[in-house]
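Quick review question:
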């Protein structure tokens, strides 16, 4: 990711975590389910 941004490392971790969660759970759940899963992933 672009290292010129202040929080690029954190942003990259969050985006990767989101894709991991989404790939495992798929679509169709309420936002809270994804939120809880992302908290565990991070």
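Suggested answer, residue by residue:
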């Amino acid at each position: 990711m672009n290292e010129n941004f202040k929080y690029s490392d954190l942003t990259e971790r969050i985006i990767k975590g989101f894709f991991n969660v989404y790939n495992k759970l798929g679509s169709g759940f309420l936002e809270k389910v994804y939120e809880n899963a992302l908290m565990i992933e991070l």
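Why it works: Helices lie at 8-25, 31-41. The radius of gyration is 12 Å.
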